[in-house]
């Protein structure tokens, strides 16, 4: 059936949240309950999306929507993996999802993907509600079909207290994210406060209220932006798939206009946009017939927004998830330029920095933003798997803190894996941006400590020791005696000098508890051996001795500010000793 020239489309609802917190279970329950409540043909699952018409929502919500009428035709749920789908479905500067649900296991609270979902929603300024799922897992919870306010009040005091404790943890966590939130029935203005709906995707408890809030918010705040023209179709590629008998196909969410099986389309790729003719518009059977293996897809003549659809077409090899797709009429050049501008990652690269690779345009943008927020420089950012060339390029950078690749939800090519052991490259290969950033924070702290240690090892360090007269093991050839390190450190092959600047000789060896060691640090007591001196002549018990630093090392150590307070104090004493005979020493 052809679409009217202008109509209100259903809002696109994205479901986000941490793994195992119940995103799929929630969608399964919505599909199952709406199928059970529907009249024939009232619900359809397209590729990557489930259309739930308003009649099915009325049936599921029952008295909750009694007497209320909506102009919205229903809701379109995106039912592929939560935050991945959300970052994939984006337009320039925003998201295709009109509204979102963040599913949180109330017994576990916020997890990495929850934080990531919230960050992405804030970035794209997408309104959302929280589905506090798995309330049935709260010990002693009594399930009922009553509204949330009454259900909570009817619980036993200890169960109610446990629920409220979990709820306040969630509200507190959202507050840390600079978001106000509360149970939905306590909220006067949903533009200022995030609504929390307690639900169980397993039993269905609270799901009618969730649907009621969604459709109510969409009707009240989104209706103006949902009025669309039935012009040439616009959409985004959700996934690129290989289908038996069809070859490469694309799963697409159409968010505006009409797309016909006879249309010419332009699709974004990693390079130049592809212009192609549609071979077939395909969609699965209605939900209750989708398990029928004889005929997986129906071929249709046309569809109109908002919907999910599979497209078979030539030249899809270089298409990437997240790429825009447009129907062309007689404005090919204009559409191609528009696609180019939308697939361009709009940020400036740095001359030096890390490499970022991701699976989609949206996730690449999200990872770039998170990196920029941390002040991380980026020299290369691309869609696609990690190649050998990426490894070589990353290893060529001089700054060890830039020998790093962020790889989001992608693979590392075999030849890249072979090259990796020959380099100093670190790759964070994760499917959660939040985890990549956490790993980076941990890595960079350790790396800085390691680099600091290496940098300090490059110079002769200041050290100050006291000769312990009770520990003389050998008077000469070599002299072996005990010392306490009062500040800094001493190492084998360092020269020692007295407070008057006279050089004693090289430390030939250091022993601690009868074991040879390379160095000793402040507070330790060790035995040292020095050739060419005799105890009682050149050195006596109680003498204070210093390491003899080269002037160039002393200057660098002072300028670089790599010493702790005690080491600086020892260095200053060495400067005083040396400048008694050379007032320009260390300058």
What does this structure look like?
This protein is an alpha+beta fold and 587 residues long. The protein folds into four domains: 6-228, P-loop containing nucleotide triphosphate hydrolases (Rossmann fold); 234-343, Elongation Factor Tu (Ef-tu), domain 3 (Beta Barrel); 354-457, Rossmann fold (3-Layer(aba) Sandwich); 463-579, Translation factors (Elongation Factor Tu (Ef-tu), domain 3). It is 31% helix and 31% strand. The protein has 14 helices and 34 strands. The protein has an eight-stranded mixed β-sheet with strand order 3-4-5-2-8-9-11-10, sandwiched between helices. Helix 1 crosses helix 2, helix 3 runs parallel beside helix 4 and helix 3 packs across helix 9 (361-373). The termini are far apart.
Mean pLDDT comes to 88
CATH class of the largest domain: Alpha Beta
* Number of domains as seen in the coordinates: 4
CATH A-level architecture of the largest domain: 3-Layer(aba) Sandwich
- DSSP strand (E) fraction? 25-35%
SS-based class = alpha+beta
Low-confidence stretches: none
Ends: how far apart? 87 Å
CATH topology-level fold name of the largest domain = Rossmann fold
Number of helices: 14
Largest sheet: 8 strands, mixed
Spatial strand arrangement across the major sheet: 3-4-5-2-8-9-11-10
Number of strands: 34
CATH H-level homologous superfamily name of the largest domain: P-loop containing nucleotide triphosphate hydrolases
Roughly how much helix do the residues carry, as a percent range?
25-40%
The radius of gyration over CA amounts to: 34 Å
